[in-house]
Design brief:
2 domains, 19 strands, alpha/beta, 6-stranded antiparallel barrel, Rossmann fold, binds manganese (II) ion
Amino acid sequence: MEKREFWFVVGSQFLYGPEVLETVEKRAREMAEELSKVLPYKLVYKVTAKTNKEITDVVKEANYDNSCLGIITWCHTFSPSKMWINGLASLQKPYCHLATQYNMEIPNDEIDMDFMNLNQAAHGDREHGFIAARLRMSRKVIAGYWKEKSVQDRIASWMKVCNGVAFSKSLKVMRFSDNMREVAVTEGDKVETQIKLGWQVNSWPVGQLVETMNAVTDSEIDALMDEYRASYDFATDDIETVRYQAREEIAIKKMMDEEGCSAFSNNFQDLYGMEQLPGLASQHLMAKGYGYGGEGDWKVSAMMAIMKRMGKDENGESAFMEDYTYNLVPGKKFSLGAHMLEVCPTIAAERPRIEVHPLGIGNRKDPARLVFEGKAGDAIVVSLIDMGGRLRLICQDIRCVKPILPMPNLPVARVMWEAMPCLETGIECWITAGGAHHTVLSYDVTAEQMKDFASIMGIEFVHITKDTTVESLEKELFLNDIAWKLR
Ligand code: MN
């Protein structure tokens, strides 16, 4: 895996003399080393910047170095901000301002004016913050003591977003067939999306997939069947049907890997030459970290791949999901989410079962699929929509529960949740914002991370929380519309 790291750039000036600058540098190195031990990516101390040129040079280097996922700045002392303008104005990497301080406590006996001059982050970080505000820069501001776990956790969370950003900017999506006929919300401007998010979205013929499937060998299928047995329970005797899914999975993966794609979409309306809709095949690919979108939904597929990269161990608990049906009984009001087949097994509460059942849609043979219940716990659902001229990322807080019904005749993976602030208002807000029926449901990516992602990418972000009202949301959307037209 290629080297990925963050750069620590500390602001100062010549005013304080060489001794103070040496102390600042020594401490900054120590902080970068200590933080690197607890953060998901290495933090590399780069420079104690005292001139316009030093800052411009480090920014240029950051822009062109692929291993640098973002920069973190801090001002141990005062650093006059006019010397930051040229550098920051040309910065192309994510930027976090860590407003911290080397010492935790004000030392009662020791404190004098020398101490004040050396430890004046409270003062220097305000000057530093002004210039980023004046430049209207997207940046993450994190304040607090650098050794405190909650501060370290927030830096870690932001770093994971930056990893998703870097991934997004080189993401390739393989489309088999177009979007489902007549569906609006899965459409979108692929050129605008590439400009904003970097995605290369292109299509390949289903016929080529079928040819690749036909070339898959029995021993390749045997090997994948062993993987299936290791991960899932077989609740079917129809081994040939499962083997056909393995054949599909191997072929889709081969085509994606050949093109360097990390996400794909297909459409049940175009399975020309295929005997089964890929169910288990798509699910097992998702478990490996590939993004997926049904009905040609390349936006949800790409978002899923990115959110998986941002999650635990870079293949987190984010799944392609679809709002299906409601339980509207007072006191037990929930959404039931599922898909025809394709829900990622990384969100399963139990070991998934491979089952074979008829599928009324798509006019193909009964496909094998994984059946399971999703985990209970706090989560988010995320939808990226094209508003015409701009992209809107909608995120809703949800609380997943163990499904309150066993639903023995439902032959698909299922998740049950309560949308915030409550089912009805949650639905009203989601529909008002224009959110899709397809979402990425995530247990380990947070709403704050999605907000940071949208901010870095320069797209609209709408967050529906426990405190959202329809009235406040309508006002926000109205003002957003005006603001985005002015940009
Ligand atoms: Mn769907």
